[in-house]
Design a protein that fits this description.
- This protein is an alpha+beta fold and 360 residues long.
- Helix content is 29%, strand content 26%.
């Protein structure tokens, strides 16, 4: 399970780059634009990460961008587990005691997260909070916890003990010591909400980069597809492994280089295995999901990574309008059928592997 506390204090090193025709297009500073005046962009710090919104429409104003900023603060104020007054914090505070009435969107997102937990047999689990707190990955002084502590916290991670009451719109954690963490789905949800608001404003061409979660709204001006570069999962390289062409879709990547610490020569990354209580150990180094909704892609990138190559590929192949790209430690790239025509490998040090053999 990806330990992305909503919202964690880091910017993803495993970035997804927006590619122009001649290479990578850097994130614009506030107010910056290209020669044609577009895009018009603003950069915010929200959800403890860098958020950049680029709008390809000259009608966009400061008032529109301020409205988006207010929307981000509203979402963060409900979903962040580090803000004491948030819905999530109140639910965690009352673990094992009382049900907590929450907002409609918090309730809906919790239900959606539980649905993905059920779909993946708990490999994605919003009740991951106790393990997130124990490992402290991404924070100064992180180290491998004692085995007894890992086992004790792992026993608290069970989405089946998240009780939701639709009539009263309440959420309750059945066992004391439990806590929910929506970090594995929350940034995607926020990207979806920002995209919806832009469309409501009448802007049909935009790029939202929420800490590496990319939402491409509509198409480029003129109707061309967006070219999104997938960063090679090697923190020292800084080059895209390839490009995916998308239209009104989101691209989300989970990988072992996002957050980690080293101990005794071993890397401990932030994607935690709910079955063992330790960081996931399998053949994968990154998983990229392409979908219509960023919340879906966020949850599925974590789940598919935790499941491993074969089970992750089977899961994503079974879902409608969801595609996936898997990169292994042996620098082999596997993908679902729908990406074969839209993905182009640009780094020759990686190899396109036999897709059918793994999917069947």
């Amino acid at each position: 399970m990806r330990t992305k506390p909503l919202f964690s204090g880091y910017v993803l090193s495993l970035v997804i780059l927006l590619l122009g025709a001649s290479g990578c297009a850097p994130i614009s500073a506030p107010g910056a634009s290209n020669g044609s005046g577009l895009p018009i962009s603003r950069t915010y710090f929200a959800f403890d990460t860098i958020v950049t919104v680029k709008v390809y429409d000259e009608r966009v104003t400061d008032a529109h961008f301020k409205e988006l900023e207010s929307l981000m603060k509203e979402i963060e104020g409900k979903l962040s587990r580090t803000i004491e007054t948030s819905d999530v914090s109140q639910v965690n505070l009352q673990a094992g005691q009382e049900a907590v009435r929450v907002s409609d969107e918090t309730f809906g997102l919790v239900r959606q997260a539980v649905g993905y937990a059920d779909l993946t047999d708990g490999r994605f689990d919003p009740a991951i909070g106790p393990l997130v707190d124990l490992w402290q990955i991404g924070k100064e002084g992180a180290k491998v916890p004692p085995q007894a502590d890992i086992e004790r916290k792992r026993d608290l991670v069970d989405f089946r003990n998240i009780e939701t009451d639709e009539t009263n719109r309440t959420v309750k954690l059945a066992q004391s010591g439990m806590s929910i963490d929506l970090g594995g789905i929350g940034k995607g949800y926020a990207a979806d909400r920002i995209a919806e608001r832009l469309l409501e404003m009448g802007f049909k061409s935009a790029i939202i980069d929420l800490g590496g979660n990319i939402m491409a709204v509509g198409t480029k001006p003129g109707g061309e597809l967006w070219n999104i570069g997938i960063q090679a999962p090697d923190e020292m390289r800084g080059n895209p492994i390839g490009q995916i062409r998308v239209d009104n879709q989101t691209i989300v990547t989970s990988g072992v280089y996002e957050r980690y610490f080293m101990e005794n020569g071993q890397r401990y990354h932030h994607i935690l295995d709910t079955k063992t209580g330790y960081p996931v150990r399998n053949e994968l180094i990154s998983v990229t999901i392409v979908a219509d909704r960023s919340a879906d892609a966020d949850a599925l990138s974590t789940a598919a990574f935790a499941l491993g190559l074969e089970e992750g590929l089977q899961l994503t192949q079974s879902l409608d309008r969801v595609e996936a790209l898997f990169v292994t430690a042996e620098r082999k790239v596997y993908m679902t059928d729908g990406l074969i025509k839209s993905f182009r490998l640009t780094d020759e040090t990686y190899e396109l592997a036999n897709l059918a053999a793994k999917a069947n």
